[in-house]
Amino acid sequence: MVSAALADDEVMLVIKPGEHGSTYGGNPLGARVAVAALEVLEEERLAENAQKLGEILRAELGRLPKDLVTQVRGKGLLNAIIVAPGLIELLSWSNL
């Protein structure tokens, strides 16, 4: 897993050395794995592909009847639908 955190000085200067970090933080092998993962993201154009597929997904979800799904939104392949009030109870786990 690769992660990063960005914050302004107001937040970052509160954290003292040794208070926050990870076992593999700064590890050369972990850093090389992170670079390789980023290279795959770039070479295979995964962000662009997610954007295109997300547009298709939202367009298709947008074709659902408006009395069932009142809103479709998202970015890339991270999407959400708003189910019409009243249907939520019908679709809940307790009714399955």
TrEMBL record:
<dbReference type="InterPro" id="IPR015421">
    <property type="entry name" value="PyrdxlP-dep_Trfase_major"/>
</dbReference>
<dbReference type="GO" id="GO:0010121">
    <property type="term" value="P:L-arginine catabolic process to proline via ornithine"/>
</dbReference>
<keyword id="KW-0808">Transferase</keyword>
<dbReference type="GO" id="GO:0042802">
    <property type="term" value="F:identical protein binding"/>
</dbReference>
<dbReference type="GO" id="GO:0004587">
    <property type="term" value="F:ornithine aminotransferase activity"/>
</dbReference>
<dbReference type="InterPro" id="IPR050103">
    <property type="entry name" value="Class-III_PLP-dep_AT"/>
</dbReference>
<dbReference type="GO" id="GO:0019544">
    <property type="term" value="P:L-arginine catabolic process to L-glutamate"/>
</dbReference>
<dbReference type="GO" id="GO:0005737">
    <property type="term" value="C:cytoplasm"/>
</dbReference>
<comment type="pathway">
    <text>Amino-acid biosynthesis; L-proline biosynthesis; L-glutamate 5-semialdehyde from L-ornithine: step 1/1.</text>
</comment>
<dbReference type="InterPro" id="IPR015424">
    <property type="entry name" value="PyrdxlP-dep_Trfase"/>
</dbReference>
<dbReference type="InterPro" id="IPR005814">
    <property type="entry name" value="Aminotrans_3"/>
</dbReference>
<dbReference type="GO" id="GO:0030170">
    <property type="term" value="F:pyridoxal phosphate binding"/>
</dbReference>
<dbReference type="Pfam" id="PF00202">
    <property type="entry name" value="Aminotran_3"/>
</dbReference>
<protein>
    <recommendedName>
        <fullName>Ornithine aminotransferase</fullName>
        <ecNumber>2.6.1.13</ecNumber>
    </recommendedName>
</protein>
<keyword id="KW-0663">Pyridoxal phosphate</keyword>
<keyword id="KW-0032">Aminotransferase</keyword>
<dbReference type="InterPro" id="IPR015422">
    <property type="entry name" value="PyrdxlP-dep_Trfase_small"/>
</dbReference>
<comment type="similarity">
    <text>Belongs to the class-III pyridoxal-phosphate-dependent aminotransferase family.</text>
</comment>
